[in-house]
Amino acid sequence: MTASSSPPLALGADPLAAVFERHYAEVYRYLARRVPRAVAEDLASETFAQAAARPGGFDPARGSARAWVFGIATHLLSRHHRDEVRAYRAWARTGVDPVTTGDETEHVDARVDAGRRASGLPSALAAMTDGDRDVLLLVALAELSYPEVAQALDIPVGTVRSRLHRARRDLRTALSTDDPKGEQ
């Protein structure tokens, strides 16, 4: 079979092009909340390049293609962990969320208030273990279910639950001690 007549790459019942169309935007959004946009674009692209390079890596019996690509994205992201922690520390120092840029003067008051309430968030995220942070952000930003997070990270669902519980507890503690008036 020649390259021009080869059949499209199939992942279970989903061709890779369909998986890309269905999930690229949400994989990119998940990554863009954790690293600078340029890095998120690179990682999102690399996620699907790796998916195409290892079509045998997807097993429909283990779960959805969505969780599989989020697993690839999370593993790629772990390689950039040092940069991620540096970005959270910079956010904590400056109070500027690296994901939001541009002229947003009409939202300044809301951002200042939100920044005041969440000033401890970047520090709390930077202080978490990689596993706890990955679970928390896959649930909160990518909106994956517990079974999808378990599949993405190749861990049991019970581990997802315990890591999420620990991460939420740590965030509550960090954010409650950050507000001198006790307001949340």
Q: Indicate the mean pLDDT.
A: 80
Based on secondary structure, the structural category is mainly alpha
> In terms of per-residue confidence, which ranges show pLDDT below 50 for 5 or more consecutive residues?
1-10, 178-184
By DSSP (H or I, 4+ residues per run), the number of helices equals: 9
Helix content: 55-70%
What summary fits the major beta sheet? 2 strands, antiparallel
Computed Rg: 19 Å
End-to-end separation:
63 Å
Set down the secondary structure blueprint:
Elements: E1 10-11, E2 14-15, H1 16-32, H2 37-53, H3 65-79, H4 81-94, H5 108-117, H6 121-127, H7 130-140, H8 146-153, H9 157-178
Antiparallel strand pairs: 1-2
Describe the overall structure.
The longest helix has 22 residues, at 157-178. 66% of the residues lie in helices and 2% in strands. The protein has 184 residues and is an all-alpha fold. The chain has helices spanning 16-32, 37-53, 65-79, 81-94, 108-117, 121-127, 130-140, 146-153, 157-178; strands at residues 10-11, 14-15.
How would you summarize this macromolecular structure in one to three sentences?
The protein is an all-alpha fold. 66% of the residues lie in helices and 2% in strands.
Give me some keywords for this one.
mainly alpha; 184 residues; single chain; globular; disordered C terminus
